[in-house]
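Sharing in case it's useful to others searching the archive later.

Someone asked me privately for the predicted structure of IrrE N-terminal-like domain-containing protein, so I'm posting the question and my answer publicly. Question first, with the sequence:
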Amino acid sequence: MLSAKDFVKENLADHQNVTSLYNAFKDYLNQQTDLKVSEVPLETLNGAKGYFQPRTNEIVIGGDESDNALKLKTLYHEYAHSQLHGLKSAFKDRPRAYQETQAEAVAYVAMQNIGVDTSNYSLGYVATWAKDKAVIHSALSEIQQVSNKVIELSDGLTKQLGLQEAQKEPEHDLKKLSAQDLNKSYQSLQQQIQQATSPQQKAQFKNQLNDVHHEISERTQKQLKSFTEQNPGIKQPESELDQSLKR
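And my answer, the predicted structure tokens:
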């Protein structure tokens, strides 16, 4: 039976600013939210890279992971679990396959936003859980909501660190935009809606935002479905008894 590990690329493409962003995001969660983020040796995680423990509202990351891009992606993944599957979440009782599909898809979109393509890892991971295409389809709305939140936080931290590139104006043809620019367009339009001075202007920006949202959702769905279809032999892993959400 194939598992996510069969599709893991040993080292995700690194990013020159990924270490700074990882540390800034971890510090933000510890200092500005009710989450606690800590690091432990990988050897204590039984093969996982990290986990979220709903009972204690704690995220644990393998601190000695040498690939800092993978560490950041893991933090995004576990943060998504905390937002969607914590004890107070409306989605905490969703099936494990649903939860893992959501968390890794959020991590994938968030990493794309900073220019790091984790598809070799993320799509394989998602495919081990999302053998039912309906899971992917029904999870997209919640994936998008949390992805936008993670992107907004990360962009804010990146700006504080002085690492942010100048934002590009949205192109008319959304299909020509990269994933990174598409997500930046989404954030830009959200700001423009808030700053709009007339109902007509606000309505125009909302229509543009809906178009961008549709394109992001369509791309995510296509990528996840395509990978699942290309790997029909992938089976969903057996459920784990541990209450923590390990990955």
